[in-house]
Every structure is written in structure tokens, then in C-alpha cells.
Amino acid sequence: xxxxxxxxxxxxxxxxxxxxxxxxxxxxxxxxxxxxxxxxxxxxxxxxxxxxxxxxxxxxxxxxxxxxxxxxxxxxxxxxxxxxxxxxxxxxxxxxxxxxxxxxxxxxxxxxxxxxxxxxxxxxxxxxxxxxxxxxxxxxxxxxxxxxxxxxxxxxxxxxxxxxxxxxxxxxxxxxxxxxxxxxxxxxxxxxxxxxxxxxxxxxxxxxxxxxxxxxxxxxxxxxxxxxxxxxxxxxxxxxxxxxxxxxxxxxxxxxxxxxxxxxxxxxxxxxxxxxxxxxxxxxxxxxxxxxxxxxxxxxxxxxxxxxxxxxxxxxxxxxxxxxxxxxxxxxxxxxxxxxxxxxxxxxxxxxxxxxxxxxxxxxxxxxxxxxxxxxxxxxxxxxxxxxxxxxxxxxxxxxxxxxxxxxxxxxxxxxxxxxxxxxxxxxxxxxxxxxxxxxxxxxxx
Length: 446
Known about the structure:
The chain has about 450 residues and is α/β, with parallel strands linked by helices. The protein has 4 domains: about 1-70 and about 185-315, 3-Layer(aba) Sandwich (Rossmann fold); about 80-175, Glutamyl-tRNA Synthetase, domain 3; about 320-350, no CATH class; about 360-440, Orthogonal Bundle (Arc Repressor Mutant, subunit A). It is about 45% helix and about 10% strand. Helix 1 links the parallel strand 1 (about 5) and strand 2 (about 35-40). It is elongated. The mean pLDDT is about 95.
């Protein structure tokens, strides 16, 4: 069968790594099977959906490298949902309920107090026409529930395996609010049918929705997709993630200087049997992707692991790949020799700014022994300099001063860079240049 999947965020907050993982897995599944990836914005919540969150979602997905074959907004499809609701009403599967939220909550508490599951009692189906007229005259407006068949519903979950739920154990779900707006379930099923979604890959928090949705697919006369419910991602402590709290949001990771491929490399493997290793392109992740590798254990997102992957990615990155990243970090003039000299010392691209300052801007040197560094300055060879200059110069300094090992190299590093540690000085020294090096060795800011 042809594969079409969808990522369906609600634009009510920023995407966090848990959302991104679901998007990435859907995208990889589609590409692995030569299929299509759809972005569907579930924006029927007019009060909480914001245009700025739509823009942020699009920006984040593009940053991750996840393109889409089709995009749709549920707010533009309300007529399709209304038509589906009218069909369900005509078929006797969508019925009006008149209880207020307070009355429903009272029923729920009474059931729990009696040790019963809080399942809606279908009292609305027992109302006579006179009761309905009276409720209408009181100014009440009904919400609408989908009448579940009290039968066993089974499906083969691509992650959880054979799954089943009996319709009698669940409340008839509300599909339409009293104000006429739609809840998640009906628009989602209508869209999945009309857009030909073949597989629904989502978090396991939606497992309880699956049986009612399968009945709804049948009631609307369509074929249901296959379902895969992934264990929810937690943070390193085991706590859940929340996009409304900005928990580990992609925007924050981007601001911290984390590279998109580090995020992709980690999220694609969390919860699988594969080792977590850096990949330099999405094509490699597509080739390695297999839905059967995902288990039911709870995967944990550890920022320290992401930092490690990000550093490893930078250490092997070519200047061609780094060029735009350096420009975005405020270093448009950075060249290949600079990048090759400093990349092994970076945790994030933004760290390159520190070493650009060491090479190009005045710094205050750290002088441990002014007599020694002045003697070293007098021995600096003439330019041009290359990577052999450091060895030639330090050999001369060693011969004249008798110093060797740490007593030779450490004071020179402090004077030349103002830092205890850093890139190899054989590659850094030519970037500093003779004039700066001599001034710093003599204790001058340069």
C-alpha cells in the first residue's frame, strides 16, 4: 500500500523535543517507504491557537530538515466536519446531551465514590421530547456525543502489538461542544479519511482515543489507518515534557547553538535498539529506519547526551558545512584555516566566537614569568608562518632557556591566548600572527 502519514500539532505553544520526535519518526517512516509526509495544523481551538505558534512550528520543522508534501489548516475545513457531523446525526450515532459541566462532574464524582468507572450514563438518550423542550427553554444548548457500539474493538498496533478495548468501558466521546466548535476526534478522523492517511504514528497518550476513532472511521464509511503508539519521551529525571512550559523547546536548543543534525540523530534513535551516534545527514537516518526497532520502554531525553553528539558533529564538520553556521553565529569572515584550527575545541558553534576574538581581537595576556616570555618574543621567527612555525620556535626557546614540557608550553599558551587550554597552538599561532604574538608575549593587550 502507498504510505501517507501526518504530523498534526496544535499551534498553542512551541514545539519541544517530544513533539519533534513524533514529527521526525513520521517523516522517516514516509521517506523509508517512498511515501508522503503531511503537515496538518490542528487549529480549531480559536482561543489558544496563535499565528506566531504556526510560524514557530514551520520554522522548527524546516530547521530540522523536515519538509512536507502537503499542508492543511483544520480551521479552513470546518464545513467538512459539519457535513460529517450531520451524517452521524442522521444515522443516529451523534446525539445531543444537555448536562452542564458541573452536572457531569457531579455524576463523575458519584460514580468514583461508588467504585464505578466514570463512564457517561447516556441519560440524554432517555429524555422525552417534553424534557428537551424544557431544557431548550431554559437556554441550554446541547453538546453532542458519538454513540459507541458496546463491542470489543481490536487493532494491531505497530509498537504495542495486539491491542483491544471494549466500547462499554469508555464514555461516548463528545465530538461537538455546546458552542458548536469541534473537539479533536471528529476533525482528525475526517482529515485522515479525506487525505488518505495510511498510518497514524503518535504518542501513547492517544491510545485511549483509538477504539472510539476506529468506530468513527467505520461510521463514516471509511477504512481506518494502521496505528503506532510510541512511548512518551521524558526528561532525564523521568518527568514529562510540556510545550506550553517551553520544556526543552526546539527554539531554545537552537538559541543554545545546538545543531539540527545532533537533535535528529538523537531523536531518531531514542527508544530503539540502535546505538545513538551522530549522523551527518537525514538520508543516513532514513536508510537505518525501521519501525520494528521501537520498543515499549520509556525513552529519556538527556541534554548532556545531546551536547555530546553536538560536539562530536562539530569536530568532524567540514568548513563548507560550517560556513553558514558560523555566519549565523556572527562570524561571516571566518575562513577554513580558522575553522579547522578550532573545531575540535567546540561544544557549540557559538563557542567559535571566543576563539575568533583570540585570533583577531585585542586580549589581555596572562603573564606568569615576564622575563621568560620576553625572551620567547625575541626568538619569534619572521613571517610567513605555517603549522611548522610553532615547533621551530619552541625548539629555539627551549635551547635558549632550558625549559621543556609544561614549564615551556604553559606560559606561552597563557600569554598568547589568555586561556589555560584550547586548540593546538601549531594551528592557532599563524592565525594570531607575529605582531599580536610579540605584543602579547611582552604583556601588552593586542
